[in-house]
Amino acid sequence: MTTVPSSTTSVSTPASAPPVPTTPTSSIGFVTPQTIQFDQPLTLQSGATISDYHLMIETYGTLNADKSNAVLICHALNASHHVAGAYADDQKNIGWWDNMIGPGKSVDTNRFFVIGINNLGSCFGSTGPMHNNPQTGKPYGADFPVVTVEDWVQAQARVADHLGIQQFAAVMGGSLGGMQALAWSMLFPDRLRHCVVIASTAKLSAQNIAFNDVARQAILTDPDFYGGDFYAHNVVPRRGLRVARMIGHITYLSNDDMAEKFGRDLRTGEYQFGFGIDFEIESYLRYQADKFADYFDANTYLLITKALDYFDPARAFDGDLSKALAKTKAKFLLASFTTDWRFSPQCSRDIVQALVSNQRTVSYAEIDAPHGHDAFLLDDARYLNLIAAYFANIDQELA
Question: How many Cα neighbours within 13 Å face the side chain of 298?
C-alpha cells in the first residue's frame, strides 16, 4: 500500500490497529429490514416528481443519546440495504459488506450505528419500476422516472430526518456508493463529519459509459423487454440481463485475477469445435449471468447504469472539480486498488487533488491488490485494517 500525495494526511495501519475478525462468530447475527413510507413528493433532478414512495433500510448497532455515531452506507450497483448480518428465514443471504461491518469489525457496530438504505428505483424493496404507479394502478415499468446519484442522496437525507440524525459521523460507499458519499459532502456539507470514498470516481470515462450502453442495449433489444412493460407479459428479459451482467462482470475483475482463476483451462480438456462452452471462464460467466437474471430487474439495471453515467459534479463548474468540492466541510478518506482499471487509482487521485486544493483534510491509500474493481468487497487485511484505523479515529473524535 502506498499513501499519496505528500500534502495529504496519511492513515497508517499500525501494529496497534485492531485485528479484523473474520469468523462467523463476529457476525452481527440476524437482522430485519424496515420500510419507511414518505408522503411528501420528491422532485428529481430531471424535473419529474415521485410521490408516495417508500425506502427499505436496515440498521446495526445502537444510536447514541446525541445521535452522533450514525454511519450511512451507500450501496453499489447490484447491492441493497442488506449490508451486514443474515435473515433468520434465509440464513445464506449474508449482507454484501458483512466482512466490513459488525461487532469488532472495521466499522464496529459496538461503536457506531450503521444504516443501509436501498435506493429509489432498486428492485430490493424500495419503490421501483416493478411497483404500482399510484396514477395508473399498474407497474411503473419504463415510466419510472430516471434517477440520479443526487436524487438518491436527497432521498437518503429524508431517512436521516426521519431518524432524527442531523449529522452523520461518516457517509461511506464503494464504487457507485462512493459517488453517493461524495455527493453527500457537496449537497449537505454540514451533515457529515467524514466522507469515505472507496474505489470510486467523480465521473465515468467514455469507456465506462460505453460499457454501460452496450449492457443497456442488450436489455433494450431483448424481445422479452416489451419496452419496459415485461411485467404485464409475465416474462423476464433474461437474455439481455445475462449479457449485461457478463459485460459488467468482466470489467469488475483484473486480467491477472482472471488468468489466475481460469487461465485458458478447458472444461473437457479438448476443443469442442462449436459455439458452446469450451473454456472455464465461459462457464463461470454464464453461471454468474444466470444467477443475476434470476434476481435482478431489467428496468432497475437501466436506471442505475444511467445514474452512473450522469454523475459529474464538476459539469456545473465548467469541468473544474476543485470548484465543485469547494463547499465541502467533511474530512475525507479515499482508497483505490492498483488493478482496478474500471475506476482506476487516477480517478481517486483526481478527487484527492481537488480536495487538497480546497485545503480539506484528506487521507488517501492506494492498495496493491490483484482483484480489480471488486477488491473493495473482498477480504484484504491491509484494506480492512485501514478502514478500522480510520473509524477508530472517528470514534475517538466522538468521545
Answer: 29
